[in-house]
Design goal:
This protein is of the alpha+beta class. It contains 3 helices and 7 strands, in the order αβαββαββββ. It is elongated.
Length: about 120
């Protein structure tokens, strides 16, 4: 999935999405200037990978540099996005039909639990 294209489509259709910018290997040399007043915490992820592949939450410039390096191992562009505390929900769609939704609950021991969001 191309996360940058998705964000562009969200903005085009007025769907709220956190502020972001794209970083490349060249940006690592002036990262403090590139990141500027964007702030922390931030999320770093490869532009074209799955939802959690290469994903990192960062709280300072040193962590940001490391996370961008890791993301660039998967793609030539890293997406840096403002962190938003929220519930993550994945929705399965097949041939335009919604199959169901699950809430993703990060674990404390590097595991992730998914639970159905269906109520009642």
């Amino acid at each position: 999935m191309d996360k940058l294209k998705a964000k562009e489509m969200f903005r085009l259709h007025n769907v709220p999405t956190p502020p972001y910018y794209v970083a490349t290997r060249a940006d690592l040399h002036d990262l403090e200037e590139v990141h500027g007043s964007f702030g922390f915490p931030a999320i770093v992820k490869p532009r074209r990978e799955g939802s959690s592949v290469g994903l990192a939450k960062v709280g300072n410039v040193a962590e940001l540099a490391d996370a961008i390096e890791r993301a660039l191992a998967f793609d030539e562009h890293a997406l840096v996005e403002r962190f938003v505390k929220a519930t993550e929900v994945h929705v399965g769609v097949l041939d335009g039909r919604v199959l169901g939704a699950i809430e993703v609950v990060p674990g404390t021991d590097s595991t992730t639990t998914a639970r159905s969001t269906r109520r009642g």
